[in-house]
Amino acid sequence: MSLLVTGTIGIDTVHAPTGSAEGVLGGSCAYFAAAASFHSPVRVVAAVGGDWPDDHRKVLEGFDNISLDGLEVRAGSRTFAWGGKYFANMNERETLFTELGVVEEPAPMVPEAYRDSEYVFLANTHPEVQLAFLDQLPDRKLAVADTMDLWINIARDELVMLLEQVDGLVLNDSEALQLTEVRNAVTAARKILEMGPTFVVVKKGEHGCVLAHESGVAVLPAFPAEAHHVIDPTGAGDSFAGGMMGHIAVAGRADLPTIQSALAWGTVTASFTLESFSLDRLASLKRADIDRRMAEFRGAARVG
Amino acid sequence: MSLLVTGTIGIDTVHAPTGSAEGVLGGSCAYFAAAASFHSPVRVVAAVGGDWPDDHRKVLEGFDNISLDGLEVRAGSRTFAWGGKYFANMNERETLFTELGVVEEPAPMVPEAYRDSEYVFLANTHPEVQLAFLDQLPDRKLAVADTMDLWINIARDELVMLLEQVDGLVLNDSEALQLTEVRNAVTAARKILEMGPTFVVVKKGEHGCVLAHESGVAVLPAFPAEAHHVIDPTGAGDSFAGGMMGHIAVAGRADLPTIQSALAWGTVTASFTLESFSLDRLASLKRADIDRRMAEFRGAARVG
Question: Chain B 243-262, CB below 8 Å of chain A: which residues?
């Protein structure tokens, strides 16, 4: 049930109608690991620069179940940094700046002690880098990748190769449309299934998600969050993936009913991420909070 | 458990990427009644002109459980006619023409034999007309209204009065935003709840629906229809309301769990409407088809 995640740890600056946060802990790997840690131990493979603030490390160390032995600190390099601004509806955002830093350098290596990892999540990066990680994980039972519009545009061939190697893909509805030229999320997900994976999750933000699995299709609404609870959507998608993969790793299988459960745990875990800037809400969260909200979600999303 | 619907019966012309249908049976009342009839007997109150095609009447008469004693045929008038065109994504449409006909004349009367109706659905029309219908239904136990952007714009005061008189409101997400100036569907629905009704359903099309009820909130995804099954979305919202109200009328109550079930029956019933132009698919449908798809939906939308 060992779970490993590769991705970015970033220094984020977020401006939203709800306020601003400057120079806070962010990145796909940070959100994923924090969310997954409530479900399963999780191993982080990422790189940061010499400028990485010590209090960011303390936040990650504050979570039970996160192992940072695969976190490379490169003294002469700079940490990945991202700035973004959300518009009034909190669903659209624009990127204000991106400083690639360590992301432009060779990817971090999977440490020897992590090479036996069975469950693997490859957060969004160049598909060639994602493929190279897979080569270092010979004992993997299940590998799931995330991707983004940039790679669909400039590295489609490598992405197609990656899809032949992974068991699952997680992507946004706009990315599913871009990859397949099919607007319908169900049909788009099924089309991606034909490219290799045994399951595909299309994330629709406030509208929930669609799953295409070799055994069937599933749909799930988002947790019904009220407007005043939505402080910062940054990292919600990565938290969703973390909750999902944490559940799959503990279950030790990826059949349709298990992934349906995993989507619900991912949804509920991510619903806390929205409630603060950075990982603030996740850092104060207890597993019992997730369980309580899961019971609430089961009631609210019950099919009569 | 007597269910009554007031609304339009129209002559529709629809152009879509999937084909065209000219001069076919349509209108909120027709779709609602057809959908509801699989769940409950339903009484229709509507008016048509002398030009109403006999084969449109035959379609409605072909459904078990639809009573047409409240259908006024006005020999010297013209039937409401609507033409629309769907764009490539099948989610947006433009109106090509609207010929109001009988809709500009005094509303039809509720016949004496229908005045004991307990469950009432007021399909979209001027809220003053909806209020006048309520005055003719003294025995009603539960009245639910639909509305549209036009009335929110030009008859907001009358709509506010209507909301104080009805038990439920059904509207689209864009209309909920327009009425409340709140983009979040959960918060918007809760805000409308404060205006009078005991429940509010926000329809989000392919993304399902959100329910705010005095006892709590619920969410439901849409049935996961594949792209090639979506032929014509016209009437899907009215069919959803028909399936929902048919279930409520038979259940004889409107507590939160009953309405959650009703939303699922509405969702499943409407998923057939999409599969053809006009009421073609509903006209060939059997209750067993709905039950089978409900079982499929329960599996696909299961919260793990």
Answer: 257-258, 260-262
The stretch A84-103 carries a mean pLDDT of 92
* Structural domains in chain B plus CATH codes: 3-300 (3.40.1190.20)
Q: Where are the beta strands (DSSP E) in A147-239?
A: 168-172, 199-203, 209-213, 216-220
Query: What ipTM, to 2 d.p.?
Result: 0.95
Nearest Cα of chain A lies from the Cα of B264 at a distance, in angstroms, of 6
| Residues on chain B touching A204 (C-beta within 8 angstroms) | 207
Q: Are A10 and A79 in contact (CB under 8 A)?
A: yes
- CB-based contact A187 B228, cutoff 8 Å: yes
Q: B108, B51, B57: which is closest to B80 by C-alpha?
A: B51
Fill in the amino acid letter for B97. Answer: F
Cα–chain center distance at B96: 21
Q: What angle do CA A194, A198, A199 make, to 5 degrees?
A: 95
Q: How far is CA A178 from the centre of its chain?
A: 19
pLDDT at A96 > cutoff 80:
yes
Give the pLDDT of residue B92: 86
The reply to whether the predicted model has a pTM over 0.95 is yes
Mean pLDDT over residues A292-298, rounded?
A: 98
Biggest alpha carbon distance in chain B?
58
Length of chain A: 304
Task: Say how far apart CA A110 and CA A133 lie, in whole Å.
Answer: 7
Instruction: List the single residue in A with minimal CA-CA distance to B263.
Output: A304
Chain mean position to CA B140: 18
C-alpha B215: how far from its chain's center?
A: 24
A-chain CB neighbours of B229 within 8 Å are: none
